Amino acid sequence: MKIVFLGPPGSGKGTYSKRIAPKLEIPHISTGDMFRDNIKNETEIGKKAKEFIDKGNFVPDEVTIEMLKQRIEKDDCKNGFILDGFPRNIDQAEALSKLTNIDVVLNLVIPDEVLIKKISARRICRQCGDIYNVADITFGDGYKMPPILPKEEGKCDKCGGELYQREDDKEEVIRERLEVYKKQTQPLIDYYTKTGLLKDVVIKGDPSMMVPEIFKILGKDNL
Fold first, then answer.
1. Which of 36, 69, 88, 155 is catalytic?
2. Taking a C-beta distance cutoff of 8 angstroms, is the pair 103, 90 a contact?
3. Would 163 be classed as within a structural domain?
4. Could you tell me the residue range of the domain that residue 184 belongs to?
């Protein structure tokens, strides 16, 4: 199964992808991880990307698309994959459609005020990147998101690394990021709606509640 996750910053694309991919026995492909792996391994495409990143410039679409093409051609993608962070624009979506056939696009929907509370409370492991959340959110019509806390305060359960708050997880920055996201992503939502691939996922609870709901949308109730 080939799945694309869309959703604003902090909506849970990475969290849900990491929980769903193992059960479907397909890889979770994060654009950020893909860049980091190629740069770390000093691949030719990684070197190209690093030139732009080092100058503070955006990596051109053609470089990102070539990197993705190489990634999805690997053996672990033969039964599908989950894309998190790609595509980001119509050009990338059209390029993706020429590379492979996507089965479904899951659009995570969550109110801005809930997102702001959720992102402000996000804590990330410096060592392995695992994500926690210290907020206990009860909001409006049935939104109930309990905190995702580590067993030991400030330490990652998985590797023992230090948990920290990203600088761009502050409220004023979050509001700006959400506005940018809406302008950039609405055309993508319209594009995938027209193709019939888009399915909205209204996020009203924590992963223990929402993962089964996502599997129902995918037609995988028994997982």
1. 88
2. no
3. yes
4. 2-217
| Nearest CA among 58, 113, 48, 43 for reference residue 89 | 58
Q: pTM (2 decimals)?
A: 0.81
137's tokens: 């959110």
Torsional sign, CA 209, 9, 70, 99: positive
**List 19, 36, 155, 177, catalytic entry:** 177
Which pLDDT belongs to residue 41? 93
Query: Does some domain include residue 205?
Result: yes
Whether residue 123 lies in the annotated active site: no
Residues 10, 124 contacting (CB under 8 angstroms): no
Joined tokens for residue 161: 């690394």
Task: Tell me the average confidence (pLDDT) per consecutive run of 10 residues in the chain, 223 residues long.
Answer: 93 91 95 90 92 86 94 96 94 96 95 88 91 85 84 95 90 88 89 96 89 93 65
Counting the structural domains of the chain, the total is 1
Q: Which residues contact 79 (CB under 8 A, 6 or more apart)?
A: 1, 25, 26
* Structural domain contains residue 100: yes
- What three-state secondary structure class fits 219? coil
